[in-house]
Amino acid sequence: xxxxxxxxxxxxxxxxxxxxxxxxxxxxxxxxxxxxxxxxxxxxxxxxxxxxxxxxxxxxxxxxxxxxxxxxxxxxxxxxxxxxxxxxxxxxxxxxxxxxxxxxxxxxxxxxxxxxxxxxxxxxxxxxxxxxxxxxxxxxxxxxxxxxxxxxxxxxxxxxxxxxxxxxxxxxxxxxxxxxxxxxxxxxxxxxxxxxxxxxxxxxxxxxxxxxxxxxxxxxxxxxxxxxxxxxxxxxxxxxxxxxxxxxxxxxxxxxxxxxxxxxxxxx
Length: 268
Prior knowledge:
Blueprint: H1 4-24, E1 78-82, H2 88-97, E2 102-107, H3 110-123, E3 128-132, E4 145-151, H4 160-170, E5 171-185, H5 190-194, E6 207-208, H6 209-219, E7 222-231, H7 236-241, H8 245-249, E8 255-264
């Protein structure tokens, strides 16, 4: 049986591999993780190309939504991106928070943190910084952020309650989160949910939507609202590989979905 540390190690190694591969082979075949048998995780991502601050070199196609779309970032805000990867959402947030604001990226993969720092320097951002840390245990102070964003990362946390608890801790009273993540509906076959390779695509470890939202509520957040929801259509080669084509094609709601959730930390 896999322990939480086993899962973290697997995810860390996979993301490090993706970061390194993106340097060697940026986009020769439309995927960020190499050709051949590797999965193109960008099948879950949304189009960033028209968003101000978008930096293609920082987009590894690993997200499943646009969390800054519903983050309501204001000039001067302090924004924290949990699982910041190569810095894509951080740079978009930095454009919105302005030079008097601050954006902090947290990622547990050292290679990703270094890649994000290089990108920040290349792009000339002075209000963005990146730190190594887990989303369940960040190096940030209590009540230090106005907004927390995250893009398809919380499902990678073995202890999602701890991850949301850490988000609650670092948010100032009255602050809020805007998180894009993967949830499921109906009963999905175990091979799809447990296959190690799918963790980097945020499918393995995904909770049902009501369970996911209940964790946010139990953490202490209020005004919880799903701002956006869309079904993820997995390519036939993937559904056939895991033997789930028929289940996902049935018109019974069963499937994998991307949601963007907004929630507030109470003021007192």
